[in-house]
């Protein structure tokens, strides 16, 4: 479809969908003004990325997963940092956090043909035991609880860290106010972020969640899917987070319907 025709088709359908909702609920002028003020406030306070994470980003993620094939993707979230250090056995952390429940991130990366992806880079990042992110929130050295893992010749990775906890997304701003006004909360289940890159391959972004954890069934960002919930498994007191990834080539993208 030509560029212009596609923009027209997508935008017209979005507008039709919104108009239908406005009619359905007989939205008043007062409510319309509140909505307009809300949008201006969200822009002014740079809260639009978070708002989009909560409302629409998961939809685009699902579409990408459908178009690309391979493992299902997840939201990237706002806290990826490009320049994490390469780690070989454990993510750097504060000394006082060493006593928290350990977790072992391990698994295997393959292509769509089932062959191992050697020397792929897996960026992993997760919250501190207080539900904060290094380099973003105050007081935590920026390289803690983050790292780039490089897969071995068999596509495997294996790195130690400590368990994150459920995390409350920033809720002092307009997005938090909207969730509260809707009677919703702003919690995400404990999660680990992954970003996998290798030359010529599609960059795959994912998250892992913990079976039975708080908010797994009720993520405010609606990102959790069954495939990303890791079954409870403990070896010598260490929570095993075993996740395999199947990554398409950058050129393997399926044709849009
Ligand atoms: C997060 O840590 C996150 O993962 C998402 C998706 C949104 C806000 C904060
Ligand atoms: Fe996160």
Query: Helix amount, in percent?
Result: 25-40%
Secondary structural class: alpha/beta
Distance between the termini: 11 Å
Low-confidence stretches: none
Seen as an oligomer or otherwise, the chain set is single chain
Order of helices and strands: HHHHEEEEEHEEEEEEE
Shape: globular
Main sheet specs: 5 strands, mixed
Ligands bound to this protein structure: 3-methylcatechol, fe (iii) ion
Count of separate DSSP helical elements:
5
Rg calculated over all Cα atoms: 20 Å
Average pLDDT rating: 94
- The proportion of strand residues reads 15-25%
Report the strand count. 12
Secondary structure topology:
Elements: H1 3-24, H2 29-44, H3 48-55, H4 57-68, E1 102-111, E2 121-126, E3 146-150, E4 156-162, E5 167-168, H5 174-181, E6 187-188, E7 191-197, E8 204-210, E9 229-230, E10 234-235, E11 238-242, E12 245-247
Parallel strand pairs: 1-11, 1-12, 8-9
Antiparallel strand pairs: 1-4, 2-3, 2-7, 5-6, 7-8, 10-11
This protein binds 3-methylcatechol and fe (iii) ion.
3-methylcatechol (MBD) binds at residues 53, 75, 77-79, 167, 169, 188, 221, 223.
